[in-house]
Amino acid sequence: MLPIDIIVPRSAPRRWQGMVIERLQAEGYDVAVLQQLGSPSWPAAVNAIFALERRLFRRTAPGLSAPQPEIPASPRSRVAALRLDLAGDAAPSDVPTILLTFDGARFDLSAALAVAAGDLPVIEAVLDHTVVVGRAWPMIDKRESAAFGIEDVLARAITLAVSVVRAFIEGRLTGEKRAPETTRNGEGTAMQFAAAYLAKSLPRLGREAFRRARFRHAHWCVGYRFTDALGVAETGRLGTGWSVLPDSGDRFYADPFPFQWQGRSFVFVEDYVHAVGKAVISVVPFNSDGTPQEPRVVLEEPHHLSYPQVFERDGAIWMLPEASSSGKLTLYRAVGFPDRWVAESVLIEGEISDATLLDHEGRLWLFATNRDGYGSTSDTLVVFYAPALIGPWKPHPLNPILIDRRMARPGGAFFRDREGRIFLPVQDGTLGYGGGLGLCELQTLDMQTVRLSQPRPIVADGDWPYPRIHTLNHSGGLEVIDGIAAVRKGSGNK
Fold first, then answer.
1. Into how many domains does the chain fold?
2. How far apart are CA 48 and CA 54, in angstroms?
3. Which backbone phi and psi does 108 adopt, to 5 degrees?
4. Counting Cβ atoms within 10 Å, is residue 262 exposed (0-12), middle (13-18) or buried (19+)?
5. Angle of CA points 419, 422, 426, to nearest 5°
6. End-to-end alpha-carbon separation of the chain, Å?
7. Could you tell me if residue 490 is inside a domain?
8. Residue at which a domain ends, from 161, 185, 212
9. Per-residue confidence (pLDDT) for residue 311, from 0 to 100
10. pLDDT number for residue 214
């Protein structure tokens, strides 16, 4: 492996910087650590507020922003092939140097200020201060907590740093030029952070606490309609004609996937019981007049299940549900459709979410998100490929394909329009999890390139009462969506 120098602050480095070093060492890189004198430390008030929030939420492990006494230096005798500047102010050098910036600022404190103010920072990897070679739009899952928000941002700083180093070493790093003066210091002060925290973060935390005292933390509703007209995927609008699948209030249904079998319509859903805190997979059969029958459980595991993609292939009916909390992606086969399923094979190990299958040009592909150890499950797109459904499944050489809260996480099955173009519904996390859906066209997919268009937002108009949607699917004339609803504790949706 080519030698890499990683530059960290000598005084009070943070845990995320040490994690980058550990990740690159684990991948076998020849890493040396250099300490940068004079790098600004975070104000003590910032560290104290983040630590206090973590205690309030009963998080005992140190966060990625937690200061460390020191990251030991380990200089080398030969010249490095690449420098990775995690301190923000490394001295000029003839060695190619990659710097991470946060909203254009050289120091990671800028990310803490942005999160405290309720903003969503953008991270850039900048080569020699002039070429942007990577970007990340991190997802912040828990907007009510600044401590959790900075955790999500720094988690993707780790992902971006490791991915751009890998691309540099493999000779596939590309980028776009920008003016060097666009990079700011962005040190910030304790007063700036305190002002942003008191004006934005603290009220937001209070509002969320008040909301959770009165309402369910999350309660989704499934919508369905039978139509021969152009659907949401073709029009980009929700339109009218939707009915709500009833629930009892103590549970909700989400992630609907329809399936046609022997002339009948079925919808498979995530079935989440609030008191239990995890979901099973249930099926909703429909009568010939389009009336849904009572949902019934068809698959339960010790871990949470959701996103039950059901499809027919190789003479069998299969289900590929999300089970990221189990640390693996398991394929199930129907042995008595629709009620009996058996685990057929583990396709992929890891914290994989919403894996979505595509048969394309002689290969099978899976698009999914990967948590990558820390942070959100909704912002890092990975792709896998295989010659057959059972596998072997291998990661795409370009993984992670992108880090982008606006389009990384699938929100339903791939579909082809009347012109043969391939589209993928994608979740937009700009407004938070379940904030909306977009449609991305698959422009290129092979072993060298994965390219999706920018998402076209779905317009939440019409008669659907819950416009914050995160799943879209159709099968035959049956179209299904879901949306998050404000449901008071103890009430239902009937």
1. 2
2. 10
3. -70, -15
4. exposed
5. 135
6. 61
7. no
8. 212
9. 98
10. 84
